[in-house]
Amino acid sequence: MQVLLGYARTGMVTVSALLFLLCCATEAHNISSILGKSPEFATFNHYLTVTHLASEINMRQTITVCAVDNHGMSDLIDKGLSVYTIKNVLALHVLLDYFDSKKLHQITNGSALAATMYQATGSAPGAAGFVNITDLKGGKVGFGAGGNDGELAATFVKSVEEVPYNISVIQISMVLPSEEAEAPTAAPSEQKLTDIMSAHGCKVFADTLLASDAQKTYEDNLEGGLTVFCPIDDAFKKFLPKYKNLTADGKMSLLLYQAIPVYESLIMLKSNNGMTNTLATDGAKKYDFTVQNDGEEVTLKTTIVTARITGTILDKQPLAIFTIDKVLLPKELFKAIAPAPAPAPAAEADAPSTEKKNKSPLAQDSPAESPSEDPADQKAEDDKNGSVRYNGGRFAALVLSSFLAMLVL
Predict the structure, then answer these.
(1) Any idea what DSSP says for residue 28?
(2) Which residue from 36, 92, 145, 328 has the highest number of Cβ atoms inside 10 Å of its Cβ?
(3) Which of 32, 215, 17, 245 is CA-nearest to residue 206?
């Protein structure tokens, strides 16, 4: 018996340890902290933060950052490029694959073409969003922007930090020259929001927004960060009769409910599932919804409707615009449809019911009340960005780990 108990305790300790290690292993990396250890990358680190690339890097796994020292970055800064153009250039230095020092010197067939975060933006023409990595003679490794006539302008200098198959930070000798990445890029705030939406299948929503005071609220949030979930034309056309029946305040809240007051790329939305506030959130008026993903599909759930993100119109800090297949309906303005009651069982043919047939009219005619709150609704608390998410996975794992350890003791 004691032997069996010993095995049980050993098993529980093992499970507890594994759960603890799992929690630790899922801890996200922080590119700013990694580069912050080396003053020689201060400028590169600064511009990753300014362009908001740092937060996108931190959301990804299996990634390689090709850092350039302060001297190499000065050549880029001297060109007088806008911060939006600098973001494209630096995005070209973030490879969407893991390359540590060993792998760089063992590339299959001596050469590889790696996709970058610049390619992921969808604005890189042709092969401009790829980086050519070639193992050269004498132990050197060359790097060159795709579509640059095969020129390998930079070389591998050293490894800065390696977390196998998660993130690798390496130093290359200079900024990769790329005419495409260095092309002038207009700031999203310099473009008219409604024009962008109108040109990409959301004209009905854009026209409705343009005719409302809600447009100003959208514009006021552009610089600080804004994510718009734009219902496609067919969806908003079908909704227009209901929209016209709303009060003036209701129309305003409905339009504000289609956006959140922070920039969220598609990658961020996939990574940060949970409750989020909206532009319509105002104290006791929660006006929130839940972001949830299933693989590559991202859905937005209210207690009334579930909308699916169907496309990306624009994803460039500080503005993201996504198309959705349904209008987001807040519970503050609409009531959920109560489930139909189950049919009453048929009376036995040979056993007539003795129950009285004259029931109360109230019991017969009163419809089921619509739920006023979503059972799964979480209390959203305001933070400085007005957007709050909660993920209890790590906490649950830690609690389970502690519980098993207590059992052993």
Answers:
(1) P
(2) 145
(3) 215
